[in-house]
Design a protein that fits this description.
The chain has helices spanning 3-16, 29-35, 60-69, 89-92, 98-108, 130-134, 138-146, 153-156, 180-185, 192-203, 229-246, 256-262, 269-272, 290-295, 300-315; strands at residues 112-113, 118-119, 164-165, 171-175, 212-215, 250-254, 277-279, 282-287. The protein has 320 residues and is α/β, with parallel strands linked by helices. The protein has two domains: 3-109, no CATH class; 119-316, Uracil-DNA glycosylase-like domain (Uracil-DNA Glycosylase, subunit E, 3-Layer(aba) Sandwich). The strands form two sheets. It has a six-stranded mixed β-sheet. A two-stranded antiparallel sheet has the order 1-2. Bound molecules: uracil (2 copies). The site of one uracil has 8 residues, from loops.
Length: 320
């Protein structure tokens, strides 16, 4: 289907639901609708939480092109090519040092800047230590994780928990870190939270076997304490390499920690939900951690909405 028609239909639908802004740029839905030749106006105007990146997938380049042709600034294509970094103040104002420029990029890397509609994609290659970057299978990564001493968690953990599932998964679930049960068995998300995760996946017609399930950290922090920044830094290359090898169509980050870590932001989960972000060029959606749902069942409905968004991204991607 023509990308413009598709986009217009989508926006019409969202407008009927009362949404009035895109996260991609300064334009709101009305502006884009005008550009796309739609008629009518919105009935209501409420706070937005809409991303046209929901259209990511099959039409991804087409809708980018359509929006671009219509004069809208969009973020770079999602896969293969290196994302285009938008101009930053560092480039537009006085020359600054490389360090400053890097710092500015780092603070924004991977973040959907809702007000400006920019995704600053980082040049991560240099962050991946050579050895991990060269691991050529999920098994090789698991083996490396098993003997990993890049941080101290290996010393207190019982088993590494590298992750498990379909090497060709279209959807990857990312949690925080292994808990007690996971540490005992070496398998991700198999405790109570894990059982709920299985049900969440079932709600969008997926089994654990179809997807890939892993965590930001591959070893359990003692007593389930929060992961330390240096542990995240040490362990992240494994997750990045796993994603490079699997090449999923969508990542679902479960919980504040996974979401904020992957998106390098302190933005509360509530504000990250409902948008399609990107992680290393892969669409990423954010939702509550199943353990949080066990404590607060009222979050089940929004979680359902979030995973349906992930499902829509899968369904709009070309068959592979
Ligand atoms: N989503 C996945 O992750 N894997 C499949 O095989 C199908 C859908
Ligand atoms: N919580 C997580 O974040 N990951 C697991 O694997 C288990 C519980």
């Amino acid at each position: 289907m023509d990308a413009r028609v598709l986009l217009r239909r989508y926006l019409e639908q969202r407008r009927e639901l009362g949404e009035s802004e895109l996260v991609l740029d300064a334009l709101n839905v009305e502006d884009v609708m005008r550009l796309l030749g739609a008629t009518g106006t919105s009935v209501r105007s409420i706070e937005p939480r809409l991303s046209v990146r929901e259209l990511a997938g099959e039409q991804s380049d087409n809708w980018r092109t359509a929006l671009h042709d219509a004069g809208v600034m969009v973020d770079a294509p999602t896969s293969g090519s290196k994302p285009v970094a938008p101009r930053t103040t560092a480039e537009t104002s006085e020359p600054t040092t490389t360090a400053e420029t890097k710092k500015e990029m780092a603070t924004r890397k991977g973040i959907v800047v809702a007000s400006k509609g920019i995704v600053v994609a980082p040049d991560e290659a240099e962050l991946i230590p050579g050895a991990i970057e060269k691991l050529d299978s999920l098994e090789a990564i698991a083996k490396q994780v098993k003997k990993c001493t890049r941080c101290t968690l290996h010393a207190t953990a019982t088993n590494p928990v590298p992750g498990e599932g379909n090497p060709n998964a279209e959807l990857v679930c990312v949690g925080e870190a292994p808990g007690a049960k996971e540490d005992e068995t070496g398998r991700p998300f198999i405790g109570l939270a894990g059982q709920l995760l299985t049900k969440i996946l079932a709600a969008i017609d997926l089994t654990r076997e179809q997807v890939f399930i892993c965590n930001v950290l591959k070893h359990r922090p003692p007593g389930n304490r929060n992961p330390l920044p240096q542990e995240v830094e040490a362990c992240s290359p494994y997750l990045i390499r796993q994603l490079e090898l699997i090449k999923p169509k969508v990542i679902v980050a479960f919980g504040t920690f996974a979401a904020q870590t992957l998106l390098n932001t302190k933005t509360p989960l509530g504000q990250l939900r409902g948008l399609v972000h990107q992680y290393h060029g892969i669409p990423l959606v954010v939702t509550y951690h199943p353990a949080a749902l066990l404590r607060n069942p009222a979050w089940k409905r929004p979680t359902w909405e979030d995973v349906k968004l992930a499902r829509r991204i899968l369904d709009s991607s070309p068959r592979s």
